[in-house]
Amino acid sequence: MDLVAASRAFVSVGEHGSFTVGAAAARMSQPVASRRVAALEERFGERLFERTSRRAVLTPFGRDLLPAARQLVRAADLLLHEADAVKQRPRPVAVPDVCSAAALARLMADARKQGLTLDLRAAGPARRLELLHSQQVRAALLAVPPDEATWCVPLGLAGAREQGVRRVYLETLRPSRLSPGPARRAWLQPEDDVPHVRDPLTRLRDALGLRPSQLAAARDLTTAAAEVLGSDDLLLCSPAQARELGLDWRPLGEVSLRRGYALATAPQDGPQQLEARLDDALVRCLGADVPERATGGTTR
Q1: Cβ distance 158 to 233 under 8 Å?
Q2: Predicted pLDDT at 71
Q3: In this predicted structure, what is the pLDDT of residue 295?
Q4: What is the structure's pLDDT at 296?
Q5: Which parts of the chain have pLDDT scores under 70?
Q6: What does the pLDDT read at residue 276?
Q7: Which long-range contacts (C-beta less than 8 Å, at least 24 apart) are formed by 56-60?
Q8: Are 121 and 93 in contact (CB under 8 A)?
Q9: What are phi and psi of 148, to 5 degrees?
Q10: Are strands 139-144 and 118-123 parallel, antiparallel or unpaired?
Q11: Which residues form the signal peptide (predicted)?
C-alpha cells in the first residue's frame, strides 16, 4: 500500500465529506479513492468513514486520525517540492577554458535535456583541479594522460598560411643559416602546458636540435594565437580551435599527441551517472575523437 497516496485520498474525502468530490479534488477517480481509503481502514483495523448514499461522514477514529494524515500529506508535498528544486539547482562543473562559448552553450542546452542544470566554470588545467579539491565545484574535467582518459582530443600544428602538406613535421622549424629573421616557434597554450603533452614535445625538440625558445608556452590562448596570426609560427591546438581561429591545421608528423580528459567528482557524487548522461554532449563540446570511443579506462 502507498501510505502517502492512501492518506491523500483519506484527507481529501474527509475534508469534502464526499468520495466523489474528494476524489476529484485529489485528482483521482472515485473508485481509486475508495480503494485507497479501504486499504487504510484494513491496515488500521478501524473504519474511517460512515458511508451513506450521499455523504462520507468521519467516524470518531477518522476525526482523530485526520490531523496526522494531513501532516503526512503536507510533508510528502514538501519533499516532492524540494526534490524538484534540487534537480533544478545549478551543478557547478569546471570545464576547459579552451572550449568556445558556442560549445559550452550547447553543452548546457544538452544537459538540460537530460534534466541537469549546469553552472560551468571555465578554467585551465591546474585551476580545475584546485576548484574540485576546494569543493567549489561538484565535478571537473581534468587533464590526464590519454591512456587514463575517457575522452581524447587530437592535437596538431596550425598556421596562419596554407601549409600545403598532409602532416607538419617539427623538424621543418629547424633554422638554417640562410633563413632570414627569427627562428619559427611552436606555441603551447596553457591547456597543453601539461606533462603528457609538453614533455614529449620537449624531448622531440631537443632530439631535432631546435633551440629551446622554439617551443614556447604562452600565458593564454589569445596571446599564442596572436603570435601565430602575425608570423610563420605554429600553434599546437585541436582542429576545432583551428577552425575557430581561422588557422590551417595539420597533425604532427613525428609524434601523435592528444589531450586526455576524465570526469572527476566530489566525494559524495559518483562520476558514472554524470558521464552516462553527458557523454555525447561532452564529446561534442570537447571536439573529442569519436571513432576511438571505448569504455573502462580506454581512450577515445
Answers
A1: no
A2: 94
A3: 41
A4: 42
A5: 87-88, 178-180, 268-271, 290-300
A6: 82
A7: 56/13, 56/14, 56/17, 56/18, 56/19, 56/22, 57/17, 58/14
A8: yes
A9: -110, 5
A10: unpaired
A11: none
Sign, Cα dihedral of 139, 142, 144, 147: positive
Closest CA to 191 of 134, 234, 228, 241: 241
What phi and psi values does residue 250 have, to the nearest 5 degrees? -140, 150
Burial of 295 from C-beta contacts in 10 A (0-12 / 13-18 / 19+) = exposed
Reduce the secondary structure of 125-173 to three states and give it as a string. HHHHHHHHHCCCCCEEEEEECHHHCCEEEEEEEEECCCCCCCCECHHHH
> Which domains, ranges and CATH numbers included, belong to the chain?
3-87 (1.10.10.10), 141-300 (3.40.190.10)
CA 75, 80, 84, 89: dihedral to nearest 10 degrees?
A: 30
Contact status, residue 157 vs residue 168, Cβ threshold 8 Å: yes
Instruction: Report the length, in residues, of the chain.
Output: 300
Which amino acid makes up residue 22? Answer: G
Place of cell 492518506: 7
At 195, list the grid cell. 606533462
- Centre a 10 Å sphere on the Cβ of residue 257 and count the other Cβ atoms it contains: 21
What integer pLDDT is reported at residue 179 of this predicted model? 65
